[in-house]
Design goal:
Length: 419
């Protein structure tokens, strides 16, 4: 028993160590992004900043479509092998193909759903930006464990992002959504170019029957991963779209600040799932240790505690250049306190998700997260019609709660939990 307890704690610390390293690398650009968001909020104003949040959410969804669960699949199935030989060529062909399809899909979405809205032109610009994502080659660096190259890529993008967005927002004072979107696309080009130099070959244009077979195999295998990835947008992002549809524009602007902060934190937690996958592959244990889960959950509680204890200070510190008013700040604080509960729910299920992905129980996990997402959409839309807009942040947590309960029931039923 003591051996298992020691192993559980050791694995939790190992997960945290690797996850912290990958997260810190990504914090380079995320930290700069927060500063840029301040300038954008200041230049656009609260109302237009809320609309800009919808645009960024649309872009993130199409990024997930471009990925289609492939990054997780490549990490789980191939690992280091994905960076060598014919497999590397096929993977690169697949990534380029999916990105092109997603860019075309976003352009069509803009011309149909967003036509006539104030984010229409920005949507078309970011559709083009899908082809030049600064993180396009991250899978290559992570699978090959090329940590220095990953770090160089992020530093390069950080410098480029600071320079381009600083000139666009600070010097030229861009105050329109299309202009800001264009600046963001230009800022991604240097890091994309570095990735091209490290992980690109003209052989990707030599497609044959083997390429088609590889695509078919990957699409078939990636379906549950894609389902899980896309279904995740039925959770926190649904709150943003619900607020956009049912609440005043001022509420959307205030909600967008807290939403961005929680999405940033949630994005960093994804790297802990990746680190957990790496360490889980080093053992054949099928038992999930509660102590391991408790260590990680307490770690997340400690890190996210300012969201509950000092929401006003946190928001003013992170969004220091935002054009705050008393009402907007109070509303944003209220939303932040509630949405931060999502981080705790995510932490409690991190180990369960990693274990299921390692064991390739992806269809079952996909079914769970899809069911939770459907429930979340129904509750958010139904509740927004009945209750005050201030109830929407709490309604948004429904999916998180359901998914955590689904996973807990599965592991308890199969007697996979130990102290």
């Amino acid at each position: 028993m003591r051996k298992h307890l020691f192993y559980g704690s050791l694995q939790a610390l190992r997960n945290i160590k690797i996850g912290v390293f990958i997260s810190l690398v990504n914090i380079l650009i995320q930290g700069v992004s927060v500063v840029v968001q301040n300038l954008i909020a200041n230049n656009l104003g609260i109302v237009k900043f809320g609309s800009f949040g919808i645009l960024q959410s649309d872009y993130t969804i199409f990024c997930a479509l471009a990925d289609f669960g492939m990054a997780t699949l490549i990490l789980a199935f191939f690992g280091h092998r994905a960076t060598k030989g014919a497999l590397f060529i096929n993977v690169l062909q697949l990534r380029l193909f999916m990105t092109s399809i997603a860019a075309l899909g976003m352009a069509v979405f803009a011309c149909t759903v967003r036509r006539g809205s104030d984010i229409f032109v920005g949507e078309l610009i970011l559709a083009l930006g899908l082809l030049f994502q600064h993180a396009f080659f991250d899978w290559y660096f992570i699978c090959g464990k090329f940590w220095k190259k990953l770090l160089i890529s992020k530093i390069l993008h950080t410098i480029s992002y600071c320079t381009v967005m600083g000139i666009a927002l600070g010097v030229l004072k861009f105050d329109s959504i299309p202009a800001v979107a264009l600046a963001m696309v230009i800022a991604a080009l240097p890091a994309f170019g570095f990735g091209v130099g490290q992980a690109f070959t003209l052989k990707i244009f030599r497609a044959g029957l083997h390429t088609v077979r590889f695509f078919k195999l990957m699409f078939k295998s990636a379906c549950p991963y894609a389902l899980s990835s896309l279904a995740s947008f039925a959770y926190l992002p649904v709150g943003l779209y619900t607020v956009d549809h049912f609440a005043p524009s001022e509420f959307l602007g205030a909600y967008n600040f807290s939403h961005k902060l929680i999405i940033l934190a949630s994005g960093l937690m994804v790297h802990f799932i990746s680190s957990s996958l790496i360490t889980l592959h080093q053992t054949d244990s099928k038992i999930l240790h509660l102590r391991d889960q408790a260590v990680f959950t307490l770690f997340i509680v400690a890190v996210s505690s300012p969201f509950w204890l000092f929401p006003q200070y946190t928001l003013r510190l992170i969004f220091f250049a935002a054009p705050w008013t008393h009402d907007v700040l109070e509303t944003s604080c209220y939303c932040l306190r509630i949405l931060a509960c999502s981080l705790i729910l995510q932490a409690t299920r991190m180990g369960m998700i990693s274990t299921m992905l390692k064991e390739k129980r992806t269809w079952l996990y996909g079914a769970m997260i899809t069911t939770g997402g459907i429930i979340n959409i129904a509750v958010c839309i139904g509740g927004a019609k009945i209750f005050d807009p201030f109830a929407i942040p709490a309604l948004t947590l429904t999916g998180d709660l359901c998914l955590s309960l689904f996973l807990l029931f599965y592991f308890v039923k199969n007697r996979r939990l130990r102290l």
